[in-house]
Amino acid sequence: MRVLQASSKTFESDIAAFCRGASVPREISDSVAAIIADVRQRGDEAVGYYAAKFDGAKLRARDFRVKPADIAAAAKRFPASDMKALKAAHEAIVEFHKKSLPKDWSAKNPHGATVGENFYPIRRVGLYVPGGEVPLVSTVLMTATLAKLAGCPEIAVFTPSNPSGKVADAILAALHLVGLEEIYCIGGVQAIAAAAYGTLTVPAVDKLFGPGNAYVCEAKRQCFGTVGVDSLPGPSEVMVVIDDSADHAFAAADLLAQAEHGSGREKIYLVATDTADLEAVRAEVTAQLKFVSRSEKITKVLATGFVGIVAKNAEEIAKAANFVAPEHLELMVKETLQKTLLKTVTTAGAIMLGNHTPTAVGDFTAGPSHVLPTGGAGRFFSGLRIADFQRRTSVIKYDKASIKNAAPVVAAFAALEKLDAHGRSVKIRAL
Prior knowledge:
Blueprint (H helix, E strand, L loop, with lengths): L1 E4 L5 H9 L6 H17 L1 H12 L12 H10 L2 H18 L7 E4 L5 E8 L2 E5 L8 H14 L3 E5 L10 H10 L3 E3 L3 H10 L9 E3 L4 H10 L4 E2 L7 E6 L5 H12 L7 E6 L2 H14 L6 H11 E5 L3 H11 L3 E5 L2 H10 L5 E4 L5 H6 L25 E8 L2 H17 L3 H11 L1
Parallel strand pairs: 1-11, 4-5, 4-7, 5-6, 7-8, 9-10, 9-12, 10-11, 12-13
Antiparallel strand pairs: 2-3, 3-14
Helix pairs in contact: 2-3, 2-8, 2-9, 3-8, 4-7, 5-6, 5-7, 6-7, 8-9, 10-11, 13-14, 16-17
């Protein structure tokens, strides 16, 4: 673990160099572009080719969509105890997100005209559910639940199959619980391209949602404009901030938890107000490695993607956090410092407070979606919310009296911008 000092004059350049390790190299960008171009040209044939190449699955176009009977059978096979956990998480997610469901409104503006906003569900959305290293069952609930609450009429799900062309029972059970039936057992760049541009088998979507590896994230970036995208949620990140009130064992466990995702591109940040606490947590990380099953993958992440930062006060902590814009920010610090940092740290995807709020509860069951911006995108993107599955239209209605009130303002702007036809279109109504 390299240790940086937040007070150093070179801190921002040093941390920027570390963060760049998560940026997409040219070879990934070029590879993604080639696959997208191929899918656009050859459609289903190309999708099947890449499913065989990357997932080992020999799929014909008619095999892409999972049969409803297979979805129901998977749900029936799924252990009752696990289904109980899915239902509990689903309930928490519904309760959280329904509070932020946008509502239409109208009011009178200063001219006396009626103005307002109407909200409409996006007609057709695509949800990407990773299933490579591990089947991310929680991602089903963290995306599909929001799409259903928003009222999207068409929801298509894309998730990679195993070499036998099958999707994990857990993923299908979760989709069955939410009530989705349009599921395609294709993943990777080829799935993003098919969803964005459409094929004979896969109708194109209007907007894409969900996390993925560096290739999937880059594919979403390259397809943006043809389709909307929620954000660019790539390899996982966590920043754990500790002071002398933190439990070192808890902090170490949370660092290991986010390092275990397995892509090798995860970024792990440990921020401490004292060097001794930093070293103590680092020792705990080493000690706890023997208790986790994915220690080999975690060790690789720790070797290249783990950095310690000494930040001696609230100002330095906020400086580091706002620069990194971490996907997950854990504030294992005193209550007074928590309150200060909640006001000054403005770029984190999600913030966990105190010693007893690990990122894992946010990943699975707290309520907010775990689809969060990474790679510094928290500076301009927020975590997934129900409004992302809707679009807004402004509504305006003037009458003869209110248009007369607006006419002088329009006339002034029309003259300033030399757009006399604009001015005339209002003037003839205000006579």
